[in-house]
Specification:
five-stranded antiparallel β-sheet, extended, DNA-binding, two-stranded antiparallel sheet, 229 residues, homodimer, 7 strands
Chain lengths: 229, 229
DNA sequence: CCCCTCCTGACAGTTTCCGGCAGTTGAATG
DNA sequence: CATTCAACTGCCGGAAACTGTCAGGAGGGG
C-alpha cells in the first residue's frame, strides 16, 4: 500500500544523491520501474512542486528542493510566531484566519514537549474580541487579483464618504495602521494608492491581466512610500 | 493523480488543527471521503509512523507525528505568516522584532522565486509607524520570568494612575485588545491578572521559582478567561 | 544522417482504491 | 442491564488509477 508515493520519495532522494546529470534510464533502474513510468513519475513530482530540469540528450537535474529542511525555530522565534499568528487569526478574513491556524498547528507539531505544544496552541485562542474584519466583503476576489495579476474594479468610499467606482491593479495586502489595506495602482487616478478593506463596498474581478508587472509595480510603490517617509 | 497521498496530508493537518478528540465521522467529512475509507486512511498514517490514539466511544487524538515528512507552507499560509510577522516587527520589543525578522528570513529562503522572496521581505518593511512598544521597559525580564518560571516584582500603574508594588508569577505574554499584556498570577491579590506592558513602570527579577507550575497555572487561567466570556 | 535522450500518445492487463453493508468490541451512560 | 457511541474489521463489486509495451516525435551533437 502506498507503493507509488513511497517510490516518488525514493526517486526524489535518488536525484538528490546521484551526481548532477542523471539519465531517465538510470533513475528508472534505481527505482525499479519502466522508463515510461519514470517519465510519469517525473511529471508527478513536477506537478507536486519540485523543480526538475530535463534536457534532451543530457539528463535530469534537480534545481530546487521543495522538501525544504525541517524548519526549526528557537524559543524567541516561536514566541514571535505565536503572537503574530494569533493576531492574524482575529483580524483576518476567514480564509486568512484559517491559514494562520493551520500554520500554528504545523509549527506546534514540531515542538518537542507535548505540554508546550498545547499551551502554544491554547494561547492563540485566548483573546477573541469581536472580529474586526469587514464581514461583508469577499477578500478572495482581491487576493486572487494579487496572485493572478488581474485587475479588480471597486466601489470605494473615501474618507468623506464619497463613493467612487474605479479599477485597480492590486499588488499586495498588508497591515497599515492596524488595518488591512490593499496596495494597488489606481487606474482612475493613475497613481499608487492604498485602499482600506473596510471601506471597499464591492469588489469584482476583471479579465484584464497585468502580468508580469506586479513585482516591478510593487517595488516602485514601496520605494515611493519609503521616499515619502 | 496523487489524490490519495494529498488526502493523507490533509487528514494529518486536520487532526492537528481540530480540537483534541475528533470523531472519525468528522474527519471523514473534512477530507471528503466515506467512513470506511477514513479508517483505512488512519491505518495508513499509523503505518507511516504517526502515533494516533483512538478510543472507542470517544474519538481520535494525534499524539506524535515526528516520523512523517516535513510539511511545507502553502501560499495562503505564507501570506498569513508575512502579515503576522510584519505586525510583530512593528509592535514588539526589539528582541521580539528581531526574532520576527529572523523567522521571516528563514521562511523567505524557502520561497521558490527570487523576486517573490524579495517582495515578501520588502512588504514586511513597508509600514513602520512609530513603535508602539513601551520603550522604557526591558521586556527580557518578563520573558525570562515566563521561560524560567521565576517570579518578577513590578511597579504598576492601574487605570486610575495609582501605583502599586507587587510580585507576580508571569505565565505568558500575549496580545489582548491590541496591546501586549502579561498573563500572570498576582501574589498581592491572590488571583489571575492581566498586566498591560505599557503600564509597567519597572520590573525586577526575583529569585523564587514556581517551577513546574507554569503550565497548569496558565491552563487554569485560560479556562477561567474562557468561562467568563 | 545517426545517436542520444527527453517526451508523448494509445492500449490492455493488472492492481489498487472506494463506498456500502453487516457485524464486533470496549466504554460510558442511563 | 440495556442503550448509545464510535472505533474497528471483513468482504464484495464496480470504478479508477497505475504499469509496461509499442510506436512514434523532437532538439542537439557528432
Amino acid at each position: 500500500m502506498m507503493a507509488r508515493t513511497d517510490r516518488l520519495f525514493r526517486l526524489l532522494q535518488a536525484m538528490r544523491v546521484l551526481p548532477a546529470p542523471v539519465t531517465a534510464a538510470r533513475l528508472a533502474e534505481e527505482t525499479g520501474v519502466s522508463l515510461r513510468s519514470l517519465y510519469r513519475d517525473i511529471d508527478s513530482l513536477r506537478a507536486a512542486g519540485a523543480r526538475i530540469e530535463g534536457e534532451r540528450g543530457y539528463g535530469y537535474r534537480l534545481t530546487e528542493d521543495h522538501a525544504l529542511p525541517p524548519q526549526t525555530f528557537d524559543r524567541m522565534e516561536i514566541e514571535a510566531l505565536a503572537l503574530g499568528l494569533a493576531e492574524v487569526r482575529h483580524m483576518g478574513d476567514p480564509a486568512l484566519a484559517e491559514a494562520a491556524a493551520s500554520v500554528l498547528a504545523k509549527v506546534a507539531a514540531t515542538l518537542p514537549d507535548a505540554s508546550e505544544q498545547h499551551l502554544f496552541h491554547a494561547v492563540s485562542h485566548v483573546y477573541r474580541p469581536e472580529a474586526r474584519y469587514p464581514s461583508g466583503l469577499d477578500m478572495s476576489t482581491l487576493r486572487n487579483g494579487c496572485w493572478r495579476e488581474t485587475a479588480v474594479s471597486l466601489r470605494y468610499a473615501d474618507g468623506e464618504g464619497t463613493v467612487t467606482e474605479r479599477t485597480i491593479l492590486p499588488l499586495a495586502i498588508v497591515y497599515a495602521d492596524r488595518r488591512l489595506v490593499v496596495l494597488a495602482w489606481c487606474c482612475l487616478r493613475e497613481a499608487f494608492r492604498m485602499f482600506r478593506t473596510d471601506r471597499i463596498l464591492e469588489a469584482r474581478a476583471e479579465a484584464t491581466s497585468f502580468r508580469p508587472r506586479r513585482a516591478s509595480l510593487l517595488r516602485s510603490y514601496l520605494t515611493e512610500l519609503r521616499a515619502r517617509a
